[in-house]
């Protein structure tokens, strides 16, 4: 297949592109900036304006839609930009669009998730046969979060929150398989191999970094805290990934000392 990847420069996109190529697909990829890496046909496109989208979708069989702007302009990029993409893809006769979303977008009250859910609905209502794959958190995201939560010394967090980190390379493999299997016209979930409490995740993180930072427990209030403690971010869906939080920590911090 000739496959367009939006968000190809991102954390997930960087492992999706080689995976597609390994499986014998021809890859076209978008970024807002011009790029020229070999083996990939790059198209400059911006979901916020629609610039470049008609060229990006022209002649492709399928789309893996990964691009997202969680921090700024999320409605414009994720919701309206997704609408611009599906309209262009419909006009170009694209046969399957797979949208990557996040486990919990339909229950965890975080503004970003509201936009992701709205984008899922845009995909489902659009003219292109579709699938949605909701993944749990990437371990890099949890790692970033723990570093941020430790800025002032101790690691601050609600120890009963549940997480289920999943390796982006395993999500990439699942996305490519989903694309090849054809439109689901539905939502599939994919999570990591184990559900961890926040305090367990912190303990392993501290050990891997040879850190003696204490955990300063707080109780996240309200519906957000309740939903996160009740497993709003985790899934029982099978199959699941195999690479654990401990595997990620060993790869990232093995043999080093970082506090
Ligand atoms: N991080 C997680 O734990 C996690 C878990 C489950 C699902 N997801 C989902 O997986 C997807 C990829 O996540 P990620 O962590 O790989 O993201 P990321 O590293 O933040 O990358 C974001 C990508 O979006 C592109 N982008 C941003 N604004 C754009 C715009 N206006 N027009 C076109 N492209 C734009 C960027 O491309 P350029 O800067 O090159 O233009 C970049 O490639 C997202 O949809 C996210 O919601 C993430």
TrEMBL record:
Domain NAD(P)-binding: 7-138
PANTHER family listed in its UniProt record: NADH DEHYDROGENASE [UBIQUINONE] 1 ALPHA SUBCOMPLEX SUBUNIT 9, MITOCHONDRIAL, NADH-UBIQUINONE OXIDOREDUCTASE 39 KDA SUBUNIT-RELATED
SUPFAM superfamilies the record matches: NAD(P)-binding Rossmann-fold domains
Pfam families documented for this protein: NAD_binding_10
Source organism superkingdom: Bacteria
The protein's name: NAD(P)H-binding protein
Transmembrane regions: none
InterPro entries: ComplexI_NDUFA9_subunit (IPR051207), NAD(P)-bd_dom (IPR016040), NAD(P)-bd_dom_sf (IPR036291)
Lineage, opening ranks: Bacteria, Bacillati, Actinomycetota, Actinomycetes, Micromonosporales
